Amino acid sequence: METTIFLTSGLKFIIFLTFVLVSVILMVYAERRVSAFIQNRYGPNRVGPWGLFQALADVVKLLMKEDIVPKNATKPLHDLAPIIAIAVSLSTFAVVPFGNTITLFGQTFKLQIADVNVGILYILAITSLGVYGITLAGWASNNKYSLLGGLRSSAQMISYELSMGVAIVGVILVAGTVRLDEIVQYQASTVWNMVQQPVAFVTFFVAAFAETNRLPFDLPEAEPELVGGFHTEYTGLKFGLFFLAEYANMLTASAVIVTLFLGGWHIPFASTLGLTGMVLDVAQIGAFLIKVILVVLFFIAIRWTLPRFRYDQLMDIGWKVMLPLALVNVFVTAAVLFILGA
């Protein structure tokens, strides 16, 4: 039994890691294509058919570049920072259910890398560690621009993690559980949380932009002010890990948004469509992937549509708008549930 569990977990991890790495390559290509479409210009169209191999060429270029470390940098922490960044992004995705339970060869499997009974708390705990990678990168580089980027990132992440955590409380109240698979099943039996918790949905979505350092919240690496911010002194593979972590974080944030607010793997009217058995299982995985792709495309479109906020505006939105909205949503949700329960 233990051998079966070990092999199953290992197979899930290999599939998961392959999926994330391939997805990041495709997301880089999609970002370039979408930005080119929005700006009415050509995207990658030279390396491979339709420029499909451009992202692979970038990977090869990063692998071949020299690893340069500043003379006065704290090398152990300089090396550790990108590892923390990518480890956090991959660890968060591990608890997201990407399908319902399936039965193969007489065995029942949950389509999760790790079935954690406190899934939401795990996500909040792991994502809070992401700030250490960026802050260490800025501090260990011994560069004032990098340090400012790291400090900006720590303040930004802490501010928006509060709003994100409070927004999730509304979901926990209506679903009555902190298990991610049960939250999806709750939405399948009622309506998606996007409808039940619209304020929490918008708050969480905006906070996810800030957590992933995506425009209009990419202040930790603002080129006009900080050259490159926390990763100014990184080259080669270590810079590539930060790049990989950003896109992996975007993929993870999209998967969490889909799970908490967009029904996860749930397909509306699946019974009406006559989907049963293995066909339904495959369709649910496909539905989850399609939802994640749509959210990722929205992330990309926003980056190339909105300008960057000033830093004071960023903090004002986090503390004076997002957090009060999330708190009011929790109080209203609790009051409604209490009245209905009474």
Series of H and E elements: HHHEEHHHHHHHHHH
Low-confidence stretches: none
The amount of beta strand, in percent, is under 5%
Count of individual domains: 1
**Mean of the pLDDT scores?**
84
Assembly of the depicted chains? single chain
Description:
By secondary structure, the protein is an all-alpha fold. It has 13 helices and two strands. It has helices at 2-38, 54-64, 75-93, 119-127, 130-140, 144-175, 180-189, 193-196, 198-211, 223-226, 236-261, 277-303, 311-341, and strands spanning 102-104, 107-109. The chain has a two-stranded antiparallel sheet. It is globular, with a radius of gyration of 21 Å.
Defining traits:
13 helices; mainly alpha; 342 residues
Summarize the structure.
This protein is mostly helical. The protein has helices spanning 2-38, 54-64, 75-93, 119-127, 130-140, 144-175, 180-189, 193-196, 198-211, 223-226, 236-261, 277-303, 311-341; strands at 102-104, 107-109.
Describe the protein's topology.
Layout: H1 2-38, H2 54-64, H3 75-93, E1 102-104, E2 107-109, H4 119-127, H5 130-140, H6 144-175, H7 180-189, H8 193-196, H9 198-211, H10 223-226, H11 236-261, H12 277-303, H13 311-341
Antiparallel strand pairs: 1-2
